[in-house]
Design a protein that fits this description.
By secondary structure, the protein is α/β, with parallel strands linked by helices. It folds into two domains: about 45 residues; about 190 residues, Uracil-DNA glycosylase-like domain (Uracil-DNA Glycosylase, subunit E), CATH 3.40.470. It has eight helices and five strands; from the N terminus they run αααββαβααβαβα. The longest helix is centred in the N-terminal third of the chain and has 21 residues.
Length: about 250
């Protein structure tokens, strides 16, 4: 059973409060003080060790499971196993979502939004959170792992603004939007429902590429803070891509 750090912290805070009162009642008993300091030290370490970045926005188990049930087939999280022998290795390793502390590694403060589902997941077809974790030979998901690793964006929710529309060519998707064959209002409403499922607070939206940014800005700029990064399939050096993300991290 998954246990999030947020729950553990609540228990620790209650315990610390009890020990503090007991310490005062027992005429400053040193043994109680030692236990108090030991637990407090553990709490501080727990906060510092919130995976890689110290982001304090963990996901509740109930929300995580609800998201997995409703959107696990079309969305995911910006978290992957570490790179192995090749840059693309382990991008499709879904075992990371089986970790007991997975909720502690995720956050709901940032949401990355790409344009549409490409449908190129390779052997991942029957697994939740498969999106952006492709085993496809020509996938570029590994670039996202590279640029987001050890940033505060690691473990963020990631999805597409256009759901259930598998198409590799973004130009075709944009053309379908312009001709009205895709009703963007329907997708925007569904996207807002998805965000409400993620959190009661409004997250910061980070568009992945110009096309998704234009859609988000045109429809949601008065409701959400919206930023943008280059699409991970673009022709850009990994070093420059990483620099762009780090610059964004400083400015948010």
């Amino acid at each position: 059973m998954l246990i999030c750090n947020s729950f553990i912290n609540v228990i620790i805070i209650i315990l610390l409060s009890f020990l503090y009162k007991l310490y005062n009642k027992k005429s400053n008993n040193t043994n109680i003080l030692k236990i108090y300091l030991l637990i407090k030290s553990y709490k501080l370490n727990l906060s510092r060790e919130n995976y890689l970045t110290g982001v304090k926005f963990m996901i509740e188990i109930k929300r995580y499971n609800k998201l997995k049930e409703k959107y696990g087939h079309v969305s995911s999280w910006t978290i992957w196993r570490e790179e192995g022998e090749t840059p693309k290795s382990n991008t499709d390793d879904m075992s990371i979502f089986e970790d007991e502390d997975i909720c502690d590694k995720l956050n709901d403060k940032y949401v990355f939004v790409a344009l549409n589902w490409s449908g190129t997941h390779g052997v991942q077809e029957d697994k939740p959170w498969k999106n952006f974790h492709s085993s496809y030979r020509y996938q570029n998901d590994y670039k996202l792992r590279y640029v987001l690793w050890k940033t505060k964006f690691w473990g963020s929710y990631i999805t597409d603004i256009i759901k259930e529309y598998p198409e590799l060519s973004s130009k075709k998707v944009v053309n379908e939007l312009q001709t009205g064959n895709i009703q963007i209002e329907d997708h925007i409403n569904k996207f807002k429902e998805e965000l409400n499922c993620l959190s009661d607070k409004k997250p910061i939206l980070i568009a992945v590429g110009n096309d998704s940014f234009n859609i988000l800005y045109d429809n949601l700029h008065d409701e959400y803070d919206i930023y943008k990064i280059t699409h991970y399939a673009a022709r850009i050096k990994k070093k420059d891509y990483k620099k762009e993300v780090l610059e964004l991290e400083k400015n948010i």
